[in-house]
Amino acid sequence: MAGAGSMSIWRLCFLLVTALALSGCDQFGNGTYRFRMTVVVETPDGVKSGSSVYQIDVAQRLQVTPESQVRKVALTGESVAVEIAPGRTLFTLLKTVSNNDSFFLMSLRSLQPNCRQTYGSAEECTIDAMVSRLSKAGPGKPFIVKPENYPMLVTFGDLDDPTSVARVDPDDLAATFGEGVSLRRITVEVTDEPVTTGIEKRLGWWSRIIESGGNLIPMERTMINGRSRYKVAPGYDETLADIGLSQFSTEAYK
Questions:
Q1: Segment (H or E) for 174
Q2: pLDDT tens for residues 154-207?
Q3: Looking at the domain assignment, is residue 96 inside a domain?
Q4: DSSP code of 215?
Q5: Sign, CA torsion 51/36/92/32
Q6: H helices present in 84-173, as ranges
């Protein structure tokens, strides 16, 4: 009887997976979505802006219970670059301040703000429900990204020197770029345009960093509890220890 029970469970899973494949899996949010992120900056010389199209592929492997569903999310794209002044460029990284993987959630939350107030129930604001609505939406108006969902912002003191990378405070661009420079807004919108490429053309040291391992900030080898470890070299920002080319482009090593 145990064998028959196992057979029934596997048959049920097979039928469910087959049904999902035939239906396109829309009710579970599978699909490919493209978004345009635009960064607008106020400067003494007028408004400067830059944008980049990125793609998110969403897939789920169905398990027996909803609690055990596994979602696979893949990001393809590159940084937004805004030239503030000759030799001074603001870059968004492919990570938010809070989480490496939250570009997906940032996109959903930005395109469906105030979800509970709009739809009236927690069930309508689950990730699956939000993605399902997104799958039915075409290109539309841009939505403001809230500060808590901002991508990390960086710049280079010298564009020719990757080790000069430095974080930029979104609330105080003037501290980095000078008086009169401020972040006006960051927006996200659904688009059907091609994914943006070419960020490496702005950074002449790109191929050299690929050959050296990908990290921008110098690292020192040290021993901790008898094990070899690496730490940020003195004089550099430890919060940028994991910043490499993959935070500027998902295609850096392809």
A1: helix 174-177
A2: 999 999 999 999 999 999 999 999 999 999 999 999 899 999 999 999 999 999
A3: yes
A4: B
A5: negative
A6: 103-111, 115-119, 127-135
